[in-house]
């Protein structure tokens, strides 16, 4: 039987692509499409909104039937409401929303004691592989290589730096024993902002319709190594979210990420 899916943030850029790709997959069935009360798409048939024909699933502000799994791509404060409702109803939830603060991440961990929760700043295989690669390169090159992370996204993106750029920094810090709270230098402007040993530079660009690009540069006197990832469309994230949702159904309560779904740690 098909896995029933509830999409939260259904009218958004990611929600619409997740819906469209779910409709191409016979093992999945979209049963609820949720967006914020007052959104102009409220009451509109989700299938018609995303151009796949009528689904008889109106956009609504809450689920009327409990899906097997939820996927949330919204805003941090909305995600917190989704998690509370998922916990109350005992529904596994995949979260792609970025920009969650430490307190909000703590609440995910708390909910994960009762339901399966999967949170990933980036759902693509390539970026999750990059998370592993940057650790290896940072350790191999050592302290004499200056690390600068640059990310570029479309003009509509609200949070900065991107969740993916922050995760790249966290992975490097974890591997090299740095304190992520102390070593990040966001942008570089002013008179006394020269490079200090161990700093990781973080730079965010917002331009046009760029889907998402990340580069980690490692430089010393004489050479630079760059590791880059470019998303060609949102579908790479949407497919990852659907894969994560199918994987999460039936799992024990716990906090998971894409590394678990893709089983990457053992391959690199
Ligand atoms: P978007 O603004 O196009 O869509 C967000 C949707 O959430 C909107 O339709 C909005 O109305 C809805 N929303 C807001 N508050 C809500 C609430 N309280 N209840 C229900 N719906 C609500 O944004 P987007 O480009 O789709 O991105 C959404 C999030 O996903 C962002 O945090 C973005 O950074 C993240 N993202 C993650 C990945 C990944 O792979 N993890 C990939 C792309 C984007």
The number of E-state strands comes to 12
Order of helices and strands: EHEHEEHEHEHEHHEEEEHEH
Bound molecules: nicotinamide-adenine-dinucleotide
Mean pLDDT figure: 96
Strand content: 15-25%
Low-pLDDT stretches: none
CATH architecture of the largest domain: 3-Layer(aba) Sandwich
Helix content: 25-40%
Shape: elongated
Query: Largest beta sheet, briefly?
Result: 7 strands, parallel
**In what order do the strands lie side by side in the largest sheet?**
3-2-1-4-5-6-12
Helix tally? 9
Number of domains: 2
Q: Tell me the CATH superfamily of the largest domain.
A: NAD(P)-binding Rossmann-like Domain
- CATH topology annotation of the largest domain: Rossmann fold
The secondary structure category is alpha/beta
Q: How would you summarize what this structure contains?
A:
The chain has 268 residues and is of the alpha/beta class.
Question: What descriptive keywords fit this protein?
Answer:
single chain, 268 residues, alpha/beta, Rossmann fold, Dihydrodipicolinate Reductase, domain 2, 2 domains, 7-stranded parallel sheet, 5-stranded mixed sheet, 9 helices, 35% helix, 24% strand, elongated, binds nicotinamide-adenine-dinucleotide
